[in-house]
Write a structure and sequence with these properties.
- With about 140 residues, this protein is of the alpha+beta class.
- It contains three helices and eight strands.
- The protein has a five-stranded antiparallel β-sheet. Strands 1-2-3 form a three-stranded mixed β-sheet, with helices on one face.
- Strand 6 and strand 7 form a beta hairpin.
- The chain is elongated.
Length: about 140
């Protein structure tokens, strides 16, 4: 099993959703989890303790493990993440420039099998999933 699969299986077995997994320098591993009822510190401790045990059994190398909620500017990685946030403001960073821009922001209107539709200042625009490098919800207060 690869790392993503190990983490996702472990997190889902505890009734949480894996939002993102990041590996950073100096052996840091960040795991972002979510749940419809929200995330508490106790949830993060539970997942961290379980992942620590699983990593020992699976012989997965890391120095530090951080488990947290995805935050208000939650990353959108899977089509189901986008579906959950239809109607919200999102910010995209594209892999390659489109109309000389890599960064786009707008209201998420629709999610299709192949991508999303945003309402931009000058009207709707479609973006395929395979051109999106990074996407986040933009918190509105």
């Amino acid at each position: 099993m690869d790392l993503m699969q190990v983490v996702e299986t472990t997190v889902e077995a505890l009734d949480f959703e894996l939002v993102a997994l990041e590996r950073a320098g100096r052996g840091l591993m960040r795991v972002f989890i979510d749940h419809p009822d929200g995330i508490t510190v106790e949830n993060c401790v539970l997942v961290s303790d379980q992942l620590t045990r699983v990593f020992t059994v699976e012989n997965i190398d890391y120095e530090r493990l951080e488990v947290s909620s995805p935050g208000l500017d939650r990353p959108l990685r899977k089509p189901e993440h986008y579906l959950r946030f239809i109607g919200e403001q999102v910010k995209l960073r594209l892999r390659l420039p489109r109309e000389a821009r890599k960064v786009w922001s707008g209201r998420l209107l629709e999610v299709t099998e192949s991508g999303i539709r945003l309402e931009l200042d000058n009207g709707p625009a479609d973006f395929a999933f395979d051109v999106i490098d990074k996407a986040n919800v933009v918190p509105e207060f």
